């Protein structure tokens, strides 16, 4: 079995970009966080990680663990620029590149391996080019499929290369916790643990029929994953929108709030952010999902299916408010998020109702102005001013297409 899939993972990406722009930061424990007064750590440098600072940690906890921590506000433009540079390097080797998030991508190397003495030689060449042209280090995993390549890239970080041959795989999986496999989330980890399954080796040996009985059709997938199997195909650089299932934005608030009128102001801003991206890529959606996080980090989502697809800010906002109205809130809210799902592309139809036509025309005019002069150059008066320009790069971010938050 010849390894043909590479997973390229940039090292402590946001922090490394900040260190590139300010080399003085390289000797300090550094963390990148959002622009709000109260937010969480997006990325920590390796020096900060030595103090126990990690992604998702509150800034207060990070400072308690590392009193000398240097905190930098996230700069969306820097990271997207570096990400595009990285993607450009990869595409110069082969067009078979799948951007996976802002700081990682998969490559199919089967068609170019004949030009290199070994997969490791190719990986070294890629690392050298990224360092020379982007100025950042990365770690690369090489394996027979995407699941194992992503696992391999984490085995030697930072600035490492791991090549998994067929003979290596059983021993590696035997001791690898199931939580390390891409696609197995915390809830599944807990359910597997209840069955006495902690490692991939245990998962691979567990009776398939019992997994299917417990997880349904997912049981077959989990059984295969436990043995290192992955049938997913590499999807080259984002040329279309068919694979996108939803568009969403969320924001951590500057303080916990209980006032529903304030929540609606937040929802209006989020509706505009989601709506602009759906309109930009000529799509609409039939399902609104509202995500709520309490101050104690309890998080839940509620959704509503709509009779017809929506795409204007007003429609998305009304749908989100409808979901909010049906939720009983027992604690002040820390985070709100909106997602538009069940997407349809290229099927938007102008309304036949005069008042809706006026709203759609106004929406198009606002989009034109914001596209020309920048996001929220014009907007709804009820929107919260301190959310304007707030950029969030989620794990589903893409350098191109609907998952990109860029408006240029």
Q: What is this structure's SSE topology?
A:
Blueprint: E1 5-10, H1 13-21, E2 30-33, E3 41-44, H2 46-49, H3 59-65, E4 70-73, H4 76-91, E5 97-101, E6 104-108, H5 119-134, E7 138-143, H6 146-153, E8 161-163, H7 169-175, H8 186-194, H9 200-205, H10 208-215, H11 218-226, E9 246-257, H12 260-280, E10 283-294, E11 299-310, H13 313-325, E12 333-345, H14 354-373
Parallel strand pairs: 2-4, 7-8
Antiparallel strand pairs: 1-6, 1-7, 2-3, 5-6, 9-12, 10-11, 10-12
Helix pairs in contact: 4-5, 10-11, 12-13
Question: What is the compact description of this entry?
Answer:
This protein has helices spanning 13-21, 46-49, 59-65, 76-91, 119-134, 146-153, 169-175, 186-194, 200-205, 208-215, 218-226, 260-280, 313-325, 354-373; strands at residues 5-10, 30-33, 41-44, 70-73, 97-101, 104-108, 138-143, 161-163, 246-257, 283-294, 299-310, 333-345.
Structure report:
The protein is α+β, with helices and mostly antiparallel strands and 408 residues long. The chain has four domains: 5-10 and 78-163, Reverse transcriptase/Diguanylate cyclase domain (Alpha-Beta Plaits, 2-Layer Sandwich); 13-77, MutS, DNA mismatch repair protein, domain I (3-Layer(aba) Sandwich), CATH 3.40.1170.60; 169-226, DNA polymerase, domain 1, CATH 1.10.150; 246-387, DNA polymerase, Y-family, little finger domain (Dna Ligase, domain 1, 2-Layer Sandwich). It is 38% helix and 21% strand. It has 14 helices and twelve strands. The protein has helices at 13-21, 46-49, 59-65, 76-91, 119-134, 146-153, 169-175, 186-194, 200-205, 208-215, 218-226, 260-280, 313-325, 354-373; strands at 5-10, 30-33, 41-44, 70-73, 97-101, 104-108, 138-143, 161-163, 246-257, 283-294, 299-310, 333-345. The strands form three sheets. A five-stranded mixed beta sheet has the order 5-6-1-7-8. It has a four-stranded antiparallel beta sheet with strand order 9-12-10-11, with helices on one face. Strand 10 (283-294) and strand 11 form a beta hairpin. Helix 4 (76-91) crosses helix 5, helix 10 crosses helix 11 and helix 12 (260-280) packs antiparallel against helix 13. The longest helix is centred in the middle third of the chain and has 21 residues, at 260-280. The two termini are 43 Å apart.
């Amino acid at each position: 079995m010849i390894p043909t899939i590479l997973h390229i993972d940039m090292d402590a990406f946001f922090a490394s970009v900040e260190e590139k722009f300010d080399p003085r930061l390289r000797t300090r424990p550094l963390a990148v966080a959002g622009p709000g007064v109260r937010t969480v750590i997006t990325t920590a440098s390796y020096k900060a990680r030595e103090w126990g600072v990690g992604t998702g940690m509150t800034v207060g906890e990070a400072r308690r663990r590392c009193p000398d921590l240097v905190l930098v506000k996230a700069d969306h433009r820097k990271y997207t620029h570096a990400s595009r540079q990285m993607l450009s390097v990869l595409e110069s080797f082969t067009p078979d590149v799948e951007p996976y998030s802002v700081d990682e991508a998969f490559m199919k190397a089967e068609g170019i391996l004949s030009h290199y003495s070994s997969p490791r030689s190719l990986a070294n060449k890629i690392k050298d080019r990224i360092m020379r042209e982007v100025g950042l280090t990365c770690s690369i995993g090489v394996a027979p499929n995407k699941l194992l390549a992503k696992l391999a890239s984490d085995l030697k970080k930072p600035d490492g290369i791991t090549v998994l041959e067929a003979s290596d795989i059983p021993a590696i999986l035997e001791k690898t916790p199931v939580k390390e496999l891409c696609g197995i989330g915390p809830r599944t980890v807990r359910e597997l643990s209840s069955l006495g399954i902690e490692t991939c080796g245990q998962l691979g040996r567990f009776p398939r029929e019992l997994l299917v009985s417990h997880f349904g059709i997912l049981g077959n997938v989990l059984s295969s994953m436990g043995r290192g199997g992955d049938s997913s195909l590499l999807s080259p650089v984002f040329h279309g929108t068919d694979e996108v299932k939803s568009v969403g934005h969320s924001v951590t608030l500057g303080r916990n709030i209980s006032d529903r009128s304030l929540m609606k102001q937040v929802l209006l801003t989020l509706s505009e952010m989601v709506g602009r991206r759906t309109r930009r890529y000529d799509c609409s959606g039939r399902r609104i999902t509202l995500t709520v996080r309490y101050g104690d980090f309890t998080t839940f989502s509620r959704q509503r299916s709509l009779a017809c697809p929506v795409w204007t800010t007003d429609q998305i906002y009304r749908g989100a408010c409808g979901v909010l109205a049906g939720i009983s809130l027992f604690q002040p809210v820390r985070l709100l998020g909106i997602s538009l799902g069940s997407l349809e592309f290229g099927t938007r139809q102008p309304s036949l109702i005069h008042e809706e036509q006026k709203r759609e025309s106004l929406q198009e005019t606002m989009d034109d102005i914001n596209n020309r002069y920048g996001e929220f150059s014009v907007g709804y008066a009820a929107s919260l001013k301190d959310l304007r320009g707030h950029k969030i790069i989620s794990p589903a971010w893409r350098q191109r297409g609907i998952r990109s938050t860029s408006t240029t």
